[in-house]
Lactate utilization protein B (Streptomyces gamaensis), 496 residues
Amino acid sequence: MSLTFMGMPKFSRTADQAENDTVLKGNIAHATRMMRSKRARAFAEVPDAAQLRDASAAIKDHTIRHLGSYLRQLEKSVIDRGGHVHWAENGEQAAALITELVRAKGAREVIKSKTMISEEIGLNEALTEAGITPVETDLGAFINQLREDHPSHIIAPSIHLNRSQVRDTFVSEMAKHGRPAPEDLTDHPEELTEAARIHLREKFLRATVAITGGNFAVAETGTLLTFEGEGNIRMCNTLPDTLISVIGIEKLVPTWQDLEVYLQMLPLSAVGERQATYTSMWSGVHDGDGPTEFHLVLLDNGRTNALADPVGRQALRCIRCSACLNVCPVFEHAGGGQVYGAVYSGPIGAILTPQLGGMSNEVERSLPYASSLCGACSEVCPVKIDFPEVLLHLRAKAARGPGHTMERLAMSASREMFAHHRVLGAGQRAAGVFGNKAAALPLPGPAKNWKGSRNLPELPGTSFRRWMAEHEKELRKQAAAKQAEAKQAEAKEDTQ
Ligand code: SF4
């Protein structure tokens, strides 16, 4: 299935490959249906949901507009509370920096909480290359790590798998990384989580360094926050001596008063609950309480480029709730996050990934086309991102870039034809004579997919202009005949 005009590259190819995987698509459809109905029920119970959305969007817009000064305030607040702040311009720098911090502590193994930003910077690969074993402690991320798989969803990274696939993974893979799965393990959720808990507990207890992300950072106090349902992040940010947190520079909120809005909005929009099961907050270091060393890594990686784009910058409001993924027909039909060929998937991936990467490759240029522009994502987005507006803006940019040769040729041929009415007339006459025969023939190259998914209407034998000219001629003839008839009748009356 090709989702867009001819010339569309990467996303359409991966979506094509996933189309026949009925198990994958069944898993995705089941999970997203559950999440969106839970969210809809929860929102219906909140009387000021509309005002919360307005506030969520407004606070993010304000923060992004004054990002520089809030980032400086955050840096000072973290340092004042005994933490260290590091700046990374790109993913490579961030991964190298974190790897160096871990190496300096002499750790050969680190525990990690699920963080999309760690995927964005390729942190696991960098750590592994340096001889350090990263251990994912979020259940979904842990399952993916055992399978050497990528996250398929922002908050539910193994949404593409069902229980029996998870059981099979545990049985075949767990022993390679530590404590094996019980021999009589079934696919009952309680047994599966228990097996993962026992396997990971040993690693939590011996870890000296942990790496986390963060949902928000409060500039006025240098506090980081995470929301979660499993408790593994809380273990990461309390048990080891050294804690390293990495966040994108857009994760800021200025004050605790601003944070109050997101304390309500994020759990509501992400999991349909009034409050997250665990909300952890940490500011610097404290004697006798948690890690003795805290490092905050602030990552740009294309975010300031997105900030410079007046239309595209609204993507930086995103709080990664995943509501847009759960309502997206393309995400569900295409087979989840893996087909996007990038860390961020679904509607937010379609507008964020190309901006972070600067549309530098075929995948990034294809993503703005991974949408039907139905607007369901905009309706649920808690920070009111206007997805169709950004998608069209990015499509225009993609069309000006490399690729899309066929589309550009077709458009310049159309421009010439419409600019010269004689050429247009000749084209219409030719279409009337040969058009239907030509339309039945197969088209070559990428145009084959474009045509294969469409039913072309039958072309009329004559153009509208020609038909109109003949019709007017006929009308004039009829009028002249009537006039002649009337004159004859008048002449007859005169002679009587
Ligand atoms: S774009 Fe909006 S709906 Fe999608 S993940 Fe971000 S905040 Fe949630």
Observations:
- Residues 1-9 have pLDDT under 50 and may be disordered.
